[in-house]
Design brief:
homodimer; alpha/beta; six-stranded parallel β-sheet; DNA-binding
Chain lengths: 217, 217
DNA sequence: GCGGGTCTCCACCTAAAGGTTGAGAGGTGG
DNA sequence: CCACCTCTCAACCTTTAGGTGGAGACCCGC
């Protein structure tokens, strides 16, 4: 009985590489490839694989959200996150979304196969680098003091280099309201300036590199 | 006579995928794989490939610098940049460093092979998306209006979320001087606020993700 | 219904950021 | 030597950002 694997990555080259890696192991069978989160969810429902290899950074629907949806709809399907970037939020975000493993793209073929088998058996398998981040998170609960929807929205605009006045125009509310939100954001993120907040947003991936605002290029 | 190709990427999965793609074409021969810029330069000298496939985002030595060194030492070796991110600076940076092609990792196998053959023949091959950036650069020379050493130094600190006063203390000069520098920076970068300047700095890689300043995490 | 949170806005304030002009010291290259 | 650039600082100004306190409207769960 082989383990059926669905590969998800927006880069065909990477999918090809993963397929190559997995085909080295006769116990594994690649049943499909998805190019974004939406495809991954749809294909997971249709194919019902044992394990989904999920890239986290993707267009259309990111891997964390895709993981969440797959796990909600198909609890028996295990998801292993696989990414090139290593960030606190990605690690904990993926785990919270229901991923059972977290691997880096620097992984060797055999480690990858091992992790997939472990996942199929319901066992957690983390890259040591990811484990470090997870431990850090657990030890310092970080009390992220979650931002509200509106605050997140404002922070995104701040992280695009926009001024309060401009944000106010864009959201069609008063500038004083923006100030209120920014104030909350600064205090919740425990930073001292909008610049720090913006950098934080970039750091945690709230905005992607190509959203940094026209005027900052 | 086959075209000898050297693959450079820090992710083994990607190298495996590229190898798989290239092996589909009998006219191409993968003669080696390098995991970072330094390795790429060394292997290029030893193997003297016809074309080097070069990832731009790598540790140890980035692809632009590696491209520059390879082109300087081995002018007969063509370099094709291959990356997942699409940025103005990467495109023009890679071309200036001597790359003859610029492809995205979303490329299909046959396009990739075509591009390598074109490169081996000394022909330019750009992903349409990259061409857009290049054209934009040429049309608006962007007059990078290079920052001076001191300005770069100040910008780095700005991009760590620090206030003028704090930067002044750190550099042991007056805050008014910092203001002067920041003013020059904003005008040279053609941005309107320190936040935009900071984002710009991050965007062009002046600071790495893990230098974003203690206070912004 | 009532507490709690969110979103909205107000007024008033201080601090920081940014614009403008000017200027002196030091270095470099023609 | 002179022109040019960089780095430094100054004074003065306007604008933006951020802090504080309060308030009304809305929604949701107990």
């Amino acid at each position: 009985m082989t383990i059926r694997v669905l590969i998800t990555d927006d880069h065909k080259v990477v999918r090809r590489g993963l397929r190559g890696f997995l085909e080295l192991d006769p116990a594994l069978e690649v049943v499909g490839e998805a190019g974004n989160g939406e495809e991954a969810v749809a294909m997971a429902q249709r194919l019902e694989p044992d394990v989904v290899l999920m890239d986290l950074l993707m267009p259309v629907m990111d891997g964390v959200e895709a993981t969440r949806q797959i796990r909600r709809r198909l609890p028996e399907v295990e998801v292993v996150a696989l990414t090139s970037v290593l960030e606190d939020v990605s690690v904990t975000g993926a785990i919270k979304a229901g991923a059972i493993g977290y691997l880096l793209k620097t992984t060797e073929a055999d480690e990858l196969c091992d992790a997939i088998k472990a996942a199929a058996a319901g066992k957690v398998q983390l890259a040591p680098e990811a484990a470090v981040h997870l431990v850090r998170e657990v030890r310092a609960p970080e009390s992220p003091e979650a931002l509200t929807g509106r605050e997140t929205q404002v922070l995104k605009l701040v992280a695009q280099g926009k001024a309060n006045k401009q944000i106010a125009r864009e959201l069609s509310i008063d500038e004083s309201t923006i100030k209120s939100h920014v104030h909350s954001i600064l205090s919740k993120l425990n930073v001292k300036s909008r610049t720090q907040a913006a950098l934080h947003a970039v750091y945690v991936g709230l905005v992607s590199a190509d959203e940094l605002g026209e005027e900052s290029r």
